[in-house]
Amino acid sequence: MSPTGRNIVLFDLFGVIARHQRPGALEEMAARCHAPTDTFTTAYWDCRPPYDAGRQSAPEYWTAVLRRLSLPADAGTIEELRLTDIDSWSRVDDRMVAYVHSLRDIAEVALLSNIPSDHADAFLTAQPWLRDLHHVAFSGKIRVAKPAPAAFHHCVVAMRAAPADFLFVDDREENVRAARATGMNGHVFTDRDEVAAVIGHWLPARRSTRPTGSPP
Fold first, then answer.
1. What angle do CA 103, 106, 109 make, to 5 degrees?
2. 3-state DSSP call for residue 162?
3. Which of 71, 73, 91, 215 qualifies as a FRET site for 98, CA 20 to 30 Å off?
4. Is residue 77 a contact partner of residue 32, using CB atoms and an 8 Å limit?
5. Tens of pLDDT along 116-133?
């Protein structure tokens, strides 16, 4: 599909607008399970993909983790771990939030994040500014996670755009490569000032090459 002349900046969430997991959180959850931190961490991440992609509920995910650790999966433990986990991913970078919000005056702004469905619900409640974006796609809700091509195609279809209309910003190089493979522009995020410069260059360049009659 040919570019439509729209300018859509598609952001990752964690490691870009939001902070990575709170330091010490995995140790805290491991202690709750009376498990070594390294063993718990391996189970936590190895079991994560279906949870992120919306193919498992939170109880199913935590049951899988606890079984990997040969521990009983009682409802109380599961809920305590679930809430601790959600809290550990709840911090945002206020400077990036302000910057993303300001971009709405000159571009369409969207979000594509790998995040379980229940985490997404909590994040939306705590961060209502997300509802001001032009589109928000959470992997647990759309049932596919980056770097799968279908995650990027979801945004293209949902926004009725062309892949070349997008500049995708993520802190993981493999996700940026996957976005580029679908036809999107891509940038690996390092910090706010650098991405602002990249976007500031991309938007004027887009305007100078926009087809005649395209919308601003």
1. 50
2. coil
3. 215
4. yes
5. 999 999 999 999 999 999
